[in-house]
Amino acid sequence: MIKLVEGVDFDVMKRTVAATRFEDGDEVKDVTVLKEQQTVVLQTHKGFFLRFAVEEIPEKKKAAVGVRAIRLSPEDFVEAVHFTEPGKDGSIPFGDRQLELSRLKIAKRDGKGTKVR
To answer: What is the pTM of this model?
Structure first.
C-alpha cells in the first residue's frame, strides 16, 4: 500500500502519532519526504521492479490505509523502495551488476512490474 500525507497532518500535540492502519503481517518499508522525486521504483523479493510517477500516488489522511502500489504474487513482498530525481543518475546493486533505475520502463501504479534478470 502507498499514500501521500500532507505534512501538516503530523503537526500534533502528542509525541506519537498513528500514521496508518496495519493488518497482521504488515510492515513499513519506507517513509520519505518528497521534494524533487519524480518516480517511485518498487523492488520485490522475486526481482520484479515497478516504476511509476509520484503523481499517481493519491493524497490521503494519515489514518487511511492507502492504495495498492504493486500487485504481488502470494509468496512475494516489497523488498525496497527507490526514488529517482531529475538530473541524477540513480543506480542500485542488483545481483552481480548495477541496475540503472532510469532505464526501467515507466508504468502505472498497481501493476505487476517487470522481472529483471
So the answer is: 0.87
